[in-house]
Amino acid sequence: MSVPSFRVGDLEIKGYSDGVLRTSLDMILNMERARSEALVGGTDGGWLYIPVNNFVFQREGKTIMIDAGSGHDMQPTLGKLPENLRAGGVDPKSVGYIVLTHIHPDHANGLIDPRGEAIYPNAEILVHAQEYDFWMSEDKGGEPEKLKAVKARNKRNMKPYTERVRRMREGEEVLGCTPILAAGHSPGHTCWRVMSGRESFLAWGDIVHLSAIQISHPDTTLSYDLDGDAARKSRHRILDMTANERIVVAGAHVNAPGFGHVVRKGTTYAFESV
Ligand SMILES: [Zn+2]
Prior knowledge:
By secondary structure, the protein is α/β, with parallel strands linked by helices. The chain has helices spanning 33-40, 81-87, 105-108, 129-136, 145-158, 211-214, 228-245; strands at 5-8, 11-24, 47-59, 62-66, 95-99, 124-128, 165-168, 177-181, 190-196, 199-205, 248-251, 259-265, 268-273. The protein has a 7-stranded mixed sheet. 44% of the residues are buried.
């Protein structure tokens, strides 16, 4: 299988799909339906599919993967990451590090199999401390049921990795990977800058979900975000940064395989695939 890739410095970063996630324009909180329909090029009654991209590279003899996919039980069109890795010659057991942008179902449910055991038994997890601590915290009472359910699942996702979690903070670096907190979508949502020599790329996680809408209209917020206003501010900050620096972006939900540049277009932005 030929796997799409891009180069940054000495690194070759490969894009591996976990499948496509079924979502709906109903998730949009602040744009008229006719406009959002036109931007995505039409839908089936508001339903549409967005890609779920993961990224893998080798460094210093280690296999490093960004995010872990959706696992076996989220949607039938998802959970394809392990088989796609194998088809591309990557044994899940060989993954040494998993870098998490955040601990949401389509990024972390794929850490475990149906028995709750690690799909990546030799992987150490790099995650922002603010994200990890939020999801691992005890319910102090009064939490909404949906949040409680995601917290419970996240504790199961992380359980087989507990001894191998590295809680990272801004300024820290492991194998060239540095977290940049971009909170809002989740409490510790993180973009990861990965450096090689003087070059770098940014794995920006869920800075956008609907790339056909939120790159050109960054104020558009979705009900997926825990704090929509903070997510909007993070999106503006990161779009501005990536356009200024002209660095390659690797986006979880940007058109598969998910790499490209953000460019300025008038007062807003556009995405150019690599
Ligand atoms: Zn996501």
